[in-house]
Amino acid sequence: MDILANLGLGFATAASPENLMYCFVGALLGTLIGVLPGIGPTATIALLLPVTFGLAPEGALIMLAGIYYGAQYGGSTTAILLNLPGESSSAVTALDGHAMARQGRAGAALAAAALSSFFAGTVATLAIALLAPPLTAVALSFGPPEYFALVVLGLVSSVALAQGSILKALAMILAGLLLGVVGTDLYSGSQRFTFDVPDLANGIEFVAVAVGMFGISEILRNLEDEHGRKASVAHVSSIVPSRQELKDMTLPAVRGTAIGSFLGILPGGGHILSSFVSYTLEKRMARDPRRFGRGEVAGVAGPEAANNAAAQTSFIPLLTLGIPANAVMAMMIGALILQGIQPGPNVMTERPALFWGVIASMWIGNLMLVLLNLPLIGLWVRLLKVPYKVLVPAILCFSAIGVYSINANVLDLAAISVFGIIGYGLMKLDCEPAPLLLGFILGPMLEEHLRRSMILSRGDPMVFLTHPISAVLLAVSALALTAVLLSPALTRKRDEIFQES
Amino acid sequence: MAEPIAPSSHCSTAAEFPPPLLSREAGAGRPAGLYIRKPKDLGAGIVFLSVATFFILVGSTSLEFGTTFRMGPGFFPLLLAGLLAVLALAIMIGSVACGTPPPATPIIRDLPVRGLFCVVLAPVVFAFTVRDLGFAPAIGLAALAGAAASRLATPAGAIVTATAITLFCIGVFIYGLGLPLPLIGPAFG
User: How far is it, in rounded angstroms, from Cα A149 to Cα B11?
Assistant: First the structure.
């Protein structure tokens, strides 16, 4: 069967000593930043993008992917042990996980998290392997109008499912799209909004924007309130869960995997939403919902499975359609572009080793994480004692060096600071930075597809409606938008899910 | 601070437009009128409107719009900026409301002024010194700026942290990753 051959190629690629090392480094680094609050996978991946430039594309993507799902593991470790979720998707895990830890069942909670995450990772890897070829086949038949509609759908759904005000998120997307316009127009060669600054001819440096808006603004936010992290660490006794606990975590893990696999594919869905939805579902399905929040294994197993599954399936739109499902995937697109690879359905056919290698590496990475996390817990806990005031200069220096190493450009470094302030300011106004980044990355793509469609249709904007696929995609976008904007019930549901904790 | 925009105007129905200047009703000692219900939204709306205006002004003067068949370089940005302006206005309209304003709450709390200054300074310091002073001094200064950002930082602690980070960066980036930047720059001969 084809899928076996593909997976075989994938494992052969991923299991090469070099790629195994990158996978390990990625998973380790991911766990590390997952453990440390104040720095997340988006900022870290942005920082490491310049480093990946010198690596082979397989190694680069494998490492970056490892960081992403590694962070999910790391975040749950601190959520359980210290009630300090290192990642927002682990916030729900902290509820029951830490409660379990306080009851002396920290080991079981950690095991529940690790095992359900591993299960989810395995299933998600299979899901990707199964779904990718047909999706890619469909995408290969897409023309510019379909691609345009697809990008629009990606952008719209990324805000429909995310937190916060829809209008502001849409505005952030538009702002990101506009920022992406800055630079040279490929069709006419004219300089757009560069004010004759030669360094802007290639546009604003993407890594600088990402590092500024996610790294620097996060630092600034953390500097607002600097009480020391005095967290009492729960003691970990036995890691082996009891028979009953194993039984209790199976079904929630399965359900969580299903939720996460599905929501991860949808742009804007992602690991955060998945974990919240899973928690809500488990609570509703439980025989005794009042036990939730007091140490219920299902409250750990479900969300952990969900966020890991979502983290992996969010690669599907990226690898098959070239559409990022979230900000991290937007970084991956950046990494691919840095390597000179055009993201899209062609990646699977032109570079099968890369495609299947990354997929296989996710399973290997999950395995490494399960083996890594449990023994190294003591180390992670000790790392948390590093005061934040030491992390700040470290992050700043890495950012500066990283961005400078791309183009040796002073303007890029200034851009870090500028976008840091902008990101911080917008955060204070309750505007999410991720949509801006998505718009920034997808802007050029969107414009290109629009222009090509218009050329093909000789200037007729109806082309988007006469082509059935693009019409459907645009209709779904419009539907999603109106549904979330106008239906107060849906809005309440969204907010409810996020406010449950 | 949530303050009524027009303290003496009464939120009128469409039939009473323009609203009368004097209001006889004032609930709870506060005049009923148009007030800013969501100041953050208003702020965001203003920001977005400014961005849109900027792009519209610069774009319409310097870039050609073109037709849908022959899209000029200005088509896409002006289209986007127009949409953004509309959204910004919608956000701003949504941020005000009729009625009695609740007690005001401050938006800007705990602004880390020192942190802002230091964090913003660090990459810029690196940028301006790396070519002349070389990698090591530049990172040292940037690390120092970053170490000073925290309110809990002490001068001694900051210097120790900065030194440690500098050495770490030199080790990892210059020797480990082989970054082609001179450790000591031309300013030192």
Answer: 42
Count CB atoms within 10 A of the CB of residue A454.
24
Task: Tell whether ipTM is more than 0.90.
Answer: no
The closest alpha carbon to B122, from A414, A172, A247, A501, belongs to: A414
Q: How far is A55 from chain B (nearest CA, A)?
A: 11
Say yes or no: B56 contacts chain A, CB-CB below 8 A: no
The per-residue pLDDT for A254 is: 92
Q: What is the pLDDT of residue B7?
A: 41
**Terminal-to-terminal C-alpha distance of chain A:** 45
CA–CA dist A75, B140 (Å, integer): 31
Q: From the CB of residue A427, how many other CB atoms can be counted at a distance below 10 Å?
A: 16
The answer to whether the beta carbons of residues A114 and A369 sit under 8 Å apart is yes
**Considering only CA atoms, which of B143, B171, B177, B92 is closest in space to residue A165?**
B92
pLDDT of amino acid A405? 82
| Amino acid residing at A343 | P
Chain B residues touching A451 at Cβ < 8 A: 71, 76
* Beta carbons of B63 and A219 less than 8 Å apart: no
| A338-353 per-position pLDDT tens digit | 888 888 888 888 888 8
Contact (CB, 8 A) for A317 and A325: yes
> Is the Cβ pair A454, B68 closer than 8 Å?
yes
Using a CB-CB distance cutoff of 8 angstroms, which residues of chain A are in contact with residue B130?
A: 404
Question: Residue A176's closest CA among A420, A414, A433?
Answer: A433
Cβ proximity of A101 and A300 under 8 Å: no
Q: Which helix (H) or strand (E) holds B99?
A: strand B96-99
Residue B180: Cβ-neighbour burial (10 angstroms; 0-12, 13-18, 19+) = exposed
What are the chain A neighbours of B68 within 8 Å (beta carbons)?
454, 459-461
Do the Cβ atoms of B123 and A388 come within 8 Å? no
How far apart are alpha carbons B149 and B51 in whole angstroms? 30
- Considering only CB atoms, A225 lies closest to which of B67, B110, B166, namely B110
Token code pair at residue A318: 């990226």
The C-alpha torsion from B32 through B34 and B35 to B39, rounded to 10°, is: 170
Contacts of A94 (CB under 8 A, 6+ apart): A79, A80, A83, A84, A85
- Which residues are within 8 A (CB) of A211 and not within 5 positions of it... i.e. 6 or more apart? A43, A46, A47, A399, A402, A403, A416, A419
Q: Return the sign of the alpha-carbon dihedral for residues A466, A469, A473, A475.
A: positive
Residues of chain B with C-beta less than 8 angstroms from the C-beta of A399: 123
Whether B182 has its CB under 8 Å from any CB of chain A: the answer is no
Measured between alpha carbons, how far is A112 from A101 in angstroms, rounded to an integer?
A: 12
Please say if the pLDDT value at position A1 is more than 80: no
A220 CB neighbours in chain B (<8 A) are 112, 115-116, 119
Give the up-direction half-sphere exposure of residue B68: CA atoms within 13 A in the CB hemisphere.
10
Place of tokens 């992996």: A312
Q: How many CB pairs under 8 A join A and B?
A: 201
State which residue of chain B sits closest to A187, comparing Cα positions. B73
pLDDT tier for residue B87 given thresholds of 50, 70 and 90:
very high
